[in-house]
Design goal:
It is a single chain. The chain has 153 residues and is mostly beta strands. It has one domain: Uncharacterised protein YcnI-like PF07987, DUF1775 (Immunoglobulin-like), CATH 2.60.40. Helix content is 10%, strand content 44%. It contains one helix and twelve strands. A five-stranded antiparallel sheet has the order 6-7-4-10-11, with no helix packed on it. Strands 1-3-8-5 form a four-stranded antiparallel sheet, with no helix packed on it. A three-stranded mixed sheet has the order 2-12-9, with no helix packed on it. A hairpin with a 3-residue loop joins strand 10 and strand 11. The chain is globular. This is YcnI family protein.
Length: 153
């Protein structure tokens, strides 16, 4: 195998090997309806994922989760749960919902719990003033001010 091709493949795989649960959308407009895509890049220390629970921050309303084949959906006003799978540690997947965003601008953090056959990961750490690297960072979205007269759909 060509050594350059080998390094290229390794470079592409590296981000997934160290991936956390992240949110595809990095920013959105206050008060709008928004698709949120939570990306799961690995299991729990090699163990397959069977449950993903996303807790919405205050002000996020009307969550409509997207069904996934092989996963059961349940939820409350501020939480959505996908249960099933399993999602093997070596694989990647996305869990999607639509919500109405709050009017408050700034970063909003989601608590995500990933349950696996052996263990769990709580993606709930929020940065502080020190700027230290977080072991289990919570996914977030930056809400920006709405433009006067712009539609919110």
């Amino acid at each position: 195998m060509n050594i350059r091709l080998l390094f290229a493949c390794a470079a592409l795989a590296a981000p997934l090997a160290h991936a956390h649960v992240t949110l595809e959308q990095t920013s959105a407009t206050a008060g709008a309806y928004q698709k949120l895509t939570f990306r799961v890049g690995h299991g729990c220390k090699g163990s397959p994922t069977h449950t993903l629970v996303v807790t919405l921050p205050d002000g996020f309303n009307g969550a409509k989760p997207m069904p996934k084949t092989g996963w059961a959906l349940s939820g409350t006003a501020n939480q959505v749960t996908w249960k099933g799978g399993p999602l093997l540690d070596a694989h990647y997947d996305e869990f999607v919902m639509q919500v109405k965003l709050p009017a408050s601008v700034g970063k909003h953090y989601f608590k995500v719990t990933q349950l696996c056959d052996q263990g769990r990961m709580d993606w709930d750490a929020v940065p502080d003033a020190s700027g230290a690297k977080l072991a289990s960072p919570a996914p977030f979205i930056e809400i920006t001010p709405a433009v006067a007269g712009a539609p919110h759909h």
